[in-house]
Fold:
Amino acid sequence: MRKAKTLIACLTVLVVLVIVQSASAQSRLEGVWRVSEVTITGQNTFKITVEPTHPSLFIVTKKHWSLLNIGTPNRPDLPKQGATDAQKVAAWTPFIASAGTYEVQGNMVTSRNTVARDPGDMAPGNFTTNEFKIEGDTVTFTPKTNQDGPIANPMITKMVRVE
Structure:
């Protein structure tokens, strides 16, 4: 009986610690961030350092997030009038826009899109779970799973706190 009470007390403390740790990690995640580095993994892994002037913004509140990013530094400008279809595609293809809700459990964050530039990203049941690590004013996200299962070659994103 005494062992059972001790076990229950230990499990209760563990659950409380996980909840407190998750709440602390979530509150540290809240804020405004910009992309500073992207690592493309796989057979030909390479790292891209993103200049501080590169247009990106990742906003995290208590329950919601929003991401706007231009995926390439060479995004062409559209002419004021008479843009061709090819010019429009070239200008809009690297544009990333999505927003939604998230949940934190330990060092894992699961996000679900509410709105996205790509309608397929808003399909019912879609989600992405990232492992995240906060060091000072830097957060690193490593995608682990999504609705299709484990992510074999994740694109690791490092962000720097703006606010």
Observations:
- Helices lie at 2-29, 85-92.
- The mean pLDDT is 85.
- The CA atoms of residues 45 and 131 lie 19 Å apart.
